[in-house]
Amino acid sequence: MFRNQYDTDITTWSPQGRLHQVEYAMEAVKQGSAVVGVRSDTHVVLATLKRSTSELASTQKKLFSIDDHLGIAIAGLTADARVLGRHMRTECMNYKYIYEIAMPVGRLALNVADKCQVSTQRASKRPFGVGLLIAGYDELGPHLYQSCPSGNYYEFYSMAIGARSQSAKTYLERHFEEFASLELQDLILQAIRALRETVSSSKDAELTSKNCAIAYVGKGDTFTIVEGEEIQPYLDTLENSDGKQEEEEEETEEAAEQTEDKPTDAPMED
């Protein structure tokens, strides 16, 4: 992308019908570290890749709790995410004060999308440079929403946003139909597997307890963030299961090779 005469104002359309500043904001989301969300019939799991600005700095926070029944994962500008997170908490508190029940997840997703859309239509504002994955559980079951800087929002079975998220999307597209019946522990492992696809071609050689964090919410579970040493057992389980799978594949290949090399009996002549 590059500067042109149509990107100096958010309210200026280009001849091709594009709002360039909105596209720049969506590009900021693509530059953020990867975030993965997966959903089953009972739970939603978020997995995030944390980055630090230098070896002397701590990693940036990627998961935020909004209410007991929902939370968000972010890709993009953390400062913009804090503003949206504070707005979402306020809306949840107001809704609970008025109606005495927790705010439905879909209604909150619509609310935050409307707030993002206002910033694309007023010259005094700029678009929020952050994308959200909203995970929650309400009377209708588990939900996973994506909110964009453009003001659009979508509900997904599984989704990945951020840098190199296409690799995770490819993995999710192949396996998402299996997620519906999974238990929470298995769903967490699938989320980590999808997140691992985003680091295979990056400077982050592997997922560790320092650069990875997960969160889950669902039936009987409030929004819970797991990071640091608490996430290490999941990484160990994933490594062990992948090792067993590789051994089984090698044994299958060896058995196939032995079958091919085995001599066949020559036909008997009359």
Task: List its traits.
single chain; 270 residues; alpha+beta; 5-stranded antiparallel beta sheet; 10 strands; globular
Describe the structure.
The chain has 270 residues and is an alpha+beta fold. The protein contains 6 helices and 10 strands, in the order αββββααββββααββα. It has helices spanning 20-31, 78-99, 105-118, 165-175, 184-196, 232-261; strands spanning 35-39, 43-49, 63-67, 70-76, 130-138, 141-147, 153-155, 158-161, 212-218, 221-227. Helix 4 crosses helix 5 (184-196) and helix 5 (184-196) crosses helix 6 (232-261). The protein is globular, with a radius of gyration of 23 Å. The mean pLDDT is 88.
Total number of helices: 6
The geometry reads as: globular
SSE topology string:
HEEEEHHEEEEHHEEH
Number of strands: 10
Described by strand count, sense and barrel closure, the largest sheet is: 5 strands, antiparallel
End-to-end distance: 80 Å
Mean pLDDT over all positions: 88
Question: Mind sketching the topology for me?
Answer:
Blueprint: H1 20-31, E1 35-39, E2 43-49, E3 63-67, E4 70-76, H2 78-99, H3 105-118, E5 130-138, E6 141-147, E7 153-155, E8 158-161, H4 165-175, H5 184-196, E9 212-218, E10 221-227, H6 232-261
Antiparallel strand pairs: 1-2, 1-8, 2-9, 3-4, 4-5, 5-6, 6-7, 9-10
Helix pairs in contact: 4-5, 5-6
Short summary:
The protein has 270 residues and is of the alpha+beta class.
